[in-house]
Design goal:
Shape: elongated
Distance between the termini: 76 Å
Structural class: alpha+beta
Number of strands: 5
Radius of gyration: 27 Å
Strand order of the largest sheet: 3-2-1-4-5
Number of domains: 2
Length: 302
């Protein structure tokens, strides 16, 4: 590994912190060259690959755990060397990675970003939205209503093909239900948080609306090739990471990957039902973090 440390020193007490280990690596890194450390890391990962392959072929190997521990140690040394050469504390890496892992893999908590807001500025905890089609030569457009009152604008697909995007408001309702977040839904329901100027400007303002719409169209452009997200496994982590970068700086950044996956999955299940049936009711329940499609007669809301 190119590290100079005496046997006597190596037998000192075990490391008690990342900082202590990183200091040791800095002392024992004779060359202190980024390329050398990078090539060393790549080489050690290759050795690890060979060890695992050997285990798969030989099955039982009494030395495997000891060899594996050594390979992990060598990889850690070179990785720490690279971090040190870029002036990045190992403790900082571990903390940020732990936070990232929690956002990616933990179930997350039910969010209520407007809990402290006045009642008229809170998203309703439960409500029903009716989607219905009306003819528009040469196609159709969709209107949505709550308790018979039309909200928002009538929508078409804005596409050469009938892809159902006229129903895309259901995605925003899914974000509201599962994430407790949707600037678009707030605008539709007229419950923007105007009593706090900064919240109204940043969280409920034009930029936040554009980001949400951008997420919806980005997902929609991938949807057909991924089976319209009818299976959660079709929503890969790369898409979620992109979304989390897009919302960084907004309150919804607290929501986990699993929450985003659930919102996308539920939204598309409802979308597929709306498109297939030419409309219907969508039940939105923020307390249960659920979105549900309910078929209704097409004569309704004509």
């Amino acid at each position: 590994m190119g590290k100079s440390i005496s046997t006597k020193k190596a037998k000192k007490a075990s490391m008690k912190s990342f900082a202590e280990y990183q200091n040791m690596v800095a002392r024992t890194d004779e060359r202190k060259q980024r390329l050398i450390s990078l090539l060393g890391l790549v080489g050690e990962v290759g050795d690890l690959h060979s060890r695992i392959k050997k285990l798969l072929l030989q099955r039982d190997d009494p030395m495997f755990r000891a060899e594996l521990r050594e390979e992990f140690g060598d990889i850690l040394w070179y990785l720490t060397s690279l971090a040190s050469l870029h002036d990045i504390p190992l403790q900082e890496i571990a903390e940020e990675n732990a936070k990232k892992a929690e956002l990616l893999y933990l179930a997350g908590n039910r969010s209520s970003f407007d809990q402290a807001s006045p009642k008229d500025e809170q998203l309703p905890r439960s409500f029903t939205v009716n989607f219905y089609e009306k003819p528009l030569k040469p196609g159709v457009y969709v209107k949505i209503s709550i308790n018979g009152i039309v909200i928002g604008d009538a929508l078409t697909d804005n596409s050469h093909e009938d892809d159902g995007y006229r129903y895309h408001d259901v995605f925003h309702l899914a974000y509201a239900a599962v994430l407790g977040w949707s600037p678009v839904t707030r605008a539709l329901l007229k419950c923007k948080r105007k009593s706090v100027k900064k919240t109204d400007e940043v969280e409920d303002g034009a930029r936040a609306l554009i980001i949400e719409e951008a997420i919806s169209i980005m997902l929609f452009n991938h949807a057909q090739s991924r089976g319209w997200y009818t299976e959660k496994t079709s929503i890969d982590i790369g898409l979620i990471k992109l979304i989390q970068r897009m919302v960084d700086g907004l309150e919804v950044k607290e929501c986990t990957a699993k929450q985003w996956k659930s919102a996308i999955h539920q939204g598309y299940l409802a979308f597929n039902q709306l498109k297939t049936n030419g409309g219907g009711d969508i039940l939105v329940d923020l307390d249960k973090q659920e979105l549900m499609y309910v078929a209704v007669s097409k004569k309704k809301s004509k």
